[in-house]
Design brief:
The protein is α/β, with parallel strands linked by helices and about 280 residues long. The protein is built from eight helices and 15 strands. The protein has a six-stranded mixed β-sheet with strand order 10-9-8-11-15-14, with helices on both faces. The radius of gyration is 20 Å and the shape is globular.
Amino acid sequence: MEGLIIKVVSNDYTVLAKNKTYICKPRGKFRNNNLTPLVGDYVIFDEVNCYLKEILPRKNSLIRPLISNIDLCFIITSTRYPDFDSHLLDKLLVLIEFNNIKPIIVFTKLDLLKDEELNEIEKVMNYYKKIGYEVYKNTEVDLIKKCFKGKISVFTGQSGAGKSTLLNKLNVNLNLETNDISYKLGRGKHTTRHVELMSIYDGLVADTPGFSKLSLNEMTISDIRDNFIEFNVYKDKCKYRDCMHLKEDDCFIKNNPNILKSRYDNYVNFVNERK
């Protein structure tokens, strides 16, 4: 039978097939072939003896969170406790674009900002909208609900950004554990301890453990450049076709007033990090 892995705890794989779930074990060949079944994997399994037989081809996968075959990635972006981090947001966007997943940015905790701070964040939000991203406030619940239908989605972002809180607001029946923010550290504590796909508005969504570090090691520096989506609008105006927008002369990207300064600065940081 063909099914979808919706939960992994230790060596138990929960597989959904024909509106029924099965707790399965992996066959030894997965370990021997260094294959790890992931939440989001479509698999062939023995429904009588309850073991996984084959992992079907993936269209994409992420390491943090450990999940595959994602259609949408909601980047839950805190503006206070923890404070807004453009470096983390842009790194997530680059990785998500590189994996051919549609990103949706959701800003949280806007009510904790002073008027001047809120104005600055709204300028940032408008920029990301202008370059082509879907951007929402966490209060725009009805708009966010419409995104899930027929999709496998994942929520990701810093610990304490409000991922589980937003999911509970979208569907109170989920009743996900949340925790207080450590104001001394300026971040949250992990409350999600495993990856699990849950039914929501005719789709599936995963809440995932928080994280603090992301690697660009699977990307080349050209990949990083090409996944800053607004750069592609201007790249043909650069003097060199393969311009990296760093030290080249007659580059149309450097110091371009139409590009958010933090975006360009983060791009340079990512390239240097990858080098």
